[in-house]
Amino acid sequence: MLPAFSYVRPTTLGEAIRLAGRKGAHIHAGGTDLLGCLRDQVLGAETLVSITGLSELRGIAPARDGGLRLGALTTIAEVAADPTIRGRYAGLAEAASQVASPQLRNQGTLGGNLCQKPRCWYYRGDFHCLRKGGEMCFAAEGESQGHAIFGGDRCFAVHPSDTAPVLAALGATVRIAGAAGTRTIPVEQLLVPAGTNPQRETVLEPGEILTEVVLPPPAAGLRSSYRKVRARAVWDFALVGVALALRLEGGVARQVRVFLSGVAAVPWRHPGIEAALTGKPLDASIIAAASVAAAKGAEPLGKNAYKVELLRGLMTEELERLARG
Asked: Which domains does the chain have, with CATH numbers?
């Protein structure tokens, strides 16, 4: 059952920032995650500040440097279908097309997908866990099938975004507006690792609003991809996902960036895989070495060791796909 709250719909970004800075206020965009969190009592709210009327936060447009600007209110369906994204940033289009269901892709926004709450049946259930301010992570000794194998430390919930890892791999940035002005940070710095602060998901301060995502111009020969393994083909989050971005130069991999989904509280960058690929041809032996490197650093819990083998197999298949072009 939803709690009682006030609902306000500001007409300017400045008004939205002012209202969002109040105690107990939450930003409402598509609402596909927020309303579920309220109904499940994951969080409470005194006020929902709807930014859906701010047209300047919608749409996809060229950036001056040749990149692309995506408003935070752009729907996931629009991201998946955009011809420029499909042609120049294929991995992002693939990631957007794998988010949830068609209905949710038409409702959910890019900004919301980046800022959604983590997935954990203890956190989303009736447990006063560490992430809710309690004293322990119940997954550490409990039902850990869907939980982190990297960077777990004290909390083992995983971040559910499909767009965040590929945006990080592509070197995208986000613009954040607040009472003190605007700031721009890389997507890979937007989310907070569990070991840093298990009660916080993003670096957004009270009253700050993510307004847009900016993609850099694609380098010559850029190839990107995203694929996730899930329990069901629709309406499910990643058990393991791989976002790849690299530049092929004479068949040799350059500027390799690898981020994983479904395995950590943030899009997990894997320098071991990047090192195994950089400066080398994408042949069978190098792909096999990268697959072996993928497992390094993993620390599975009692019931999610299967994720390690999933990751290795997925890495092999995705690298073979990129090598074929």
From this structure: 55-115+158-215 (3.30.465.10), 222-324 (3.30.390.50)
